[in-house]
Design goal:
The protein is of the alpha/beta class. The chain has a domain of 233 residues: Rossmann fold (3-Layer(aba) Sandwich), CATH 3.40.50. The chain has 17 helices and 15 strands. It binds pyridoxal-5'-phosphate (PLP). Pyridoxal-5'-phosphate binds next to α6 and α12.
């Protein structure tokens, strides 16, 4: 019984897949909030690397070359294994075949580095010297710090002040890669100063951190802002996950009936799902696509489809998306990466068009699933990824009831080894459910 499927180096994908080009209904354009006109590549490249801005708005090219130097860096940790979860199947006593794509095995511990590398590479190519971003849970900040160092860029990360205090190891990781980590709100920007003057003990939020990072990028020469989720170009880079998985499923002799990933802004979901979804769009292949979100932050199942800002301060273009409102304050659940108010533009259109569905998972069910997974497969998953595991377990149990032998594929977006305080709380019986009360 083969348990893990790898691709030889010669089989690694050389192009990313851009689902926008194949979508029958194209996503609506992002709008400039001042003029209500569609934003242009020029507008976006004031904040982002120009190549990323182009990719963001590209509805024409389905395949985009992975630059050779990025491909060379991918080789350090790709392909990631596709694993058949025999032990989990056995414990659940299900006829379903369960596979997971293990994106936790790179040294950064999550899928985020797949996009951090190309974003920093394009910055370097375009003469940028500094990158900046915000981070809440810390996975994106860690990935960007590493990628910046690889391409010789300075990196400044605004980390939500309260998470910096609660999760000190996250900033240790970023500093080890050479980044400057600043607790937000800080005195280093006008936005930060304004907040601190009004409220000296402000704990910080993703909103304050995004505002500070964007301000730094727009007021510093040769400095760009980089985002680790939500945007189309991030999902594009993450398609490497699904393109590999497609070839690996072939090695396993199967094609998934159900594809599942957890959902924050949609990058690991899109990354795994879109390459499979192209067969649904182009060939009518029947596959079920499930995005697993927290019951406390259910933008896919209970959000509204409309234009909204991507950040709480209202600095970004207006994006057409399923949203709980940019001023939504999420409950303090441990899956920090899933506490975002909106869904990416592509995913929002696909959900509207019925290609995929969302499911909500309560916090305790995610930790039950995580524990089951740890005790069978030997990997402690990130609390974010545990939402995908919980959704996969629900489907596997359904197969047991109906006797159907479906093939389930889910993404393990990251490991949870720096989230052990969350597991301690769960094991001590201190965790509770927070359900969204619209
Ligand atoms: C950031 C993060 C997520 C959520 O982001 P998406 O863009 O929705 O993928 C999920 N899992 C892990 C481990 C993360 O770090």
């Amino acid at each position: 019984m083969t348990k893990r499927f790898f691709l030889p180096e010669s089989e690694l994908p050389r192009q990313w897949y851009n689902i926008q080009a194949d979508m029958l209904t194209k996503p609506l354009p992002p709008l400039n909030p001042a003029t209500r006109e569609p934003v242009t590549v020029d507008d976006l490249s004031q904040i982002f690397a120009r190549e990323c801005a182009k990719q963001e708005l590209d509805q024409e090219h389905a395949w985009i070359d992975i630059p050779e130097p990025v491909y060379e860096m991918y080789k350090y940790y790709r392909s990631t294994p596709l694993v058949r979860a025999y032990a989990l199947e056995q414990l659940l006593d299900t006829p379903a075949h369960i596979y997971f794509k293990n994106e936790s095995v790179n040294p950064l511990g999550s899928h985020k580095v797949n996009s951090a590398l190309p974003q920093c590479y394009y910055c370097k190519q375009e003469g940028v010297t500094n990158v900046t971003t915000e981070t809440g849970a810390g996975q994106w900040g860690a990935a960007l710090s590493y990628a910046a160092k690889i391409y010789g860029l300075e990196c400044a990360v605004y980390q939500v002040k309260i998470s910096m205090q609660q999760k000190p190891y996250r900033s240790s990781i970023m500093r080890t890669f050479g980044a400057t980590v600043i607790g937000s709100p800080s005195m280093s920007t006008r936005a930060g100063k304004d907040i601190i003057t009004r409220e000296p003990n402000h704990p910080g939020s993703l909103g304050t951190a995004i505002s500070e990072a964007i301000e730094l990028a727009t007021t510093t020469p040769h400095c760009k802002y980089a985002l680790g989720s939500v945007l189309n170009h991030v999902a594009l880079h993450q398609s490497i996950i699904g393109l590999e998985a497609e070839k690996q499923m072939e090695l396993a002799g199967e094609y998934p009936d159900i594809v599942i990933a957890c959902f924050g802004g949609g990058s690991n979901f899109g990354g795994l799902a879109f390459p499979f979804m192209r067969h649904t769009i182009l060939e009518g292949r029947k596959t079920q696509f499930i995005a697993a979100e927290p019951d406390s932050c259910p933008k896919l199942t209970r959000g509204e489809f409309r234009y909204d800002f991507g950040d709480s301060a209202g600095y970004t273009p207006l994006l057409p998306m399923f949203t709980l409102g940019h001023e939504f304050k999420p409950a303090n659940i441990h899956a920090g990466g899933l506490r975002y108010h909106g869904a990416g533009v592509i995913v929002s259109q696909l959900l509207k068009d019925g290609y995929m569905q969302g499911v909500d998972i309560p916090q305790l069910e995610t930790f039950e699933a995580a524990t089951l997974f740890a005790r069978t497969e030997g990997i402690i998953p990130a609390p974010e990824s545990a939402h995908a595991i919980a959704a996969a377990i629900r489907e596997a149990k359904r197969c047991k009831e109906s006797g159907e032998q479906k093939t389930i594929l889910f993404n393990l977006s990251g490991h949870g080894l720096i989230d052990m305080s969350a597991y301690d709380q769960y094991n001590n019986g201190e965790l509770v459910n927070y359900s969204y009360q619209g």
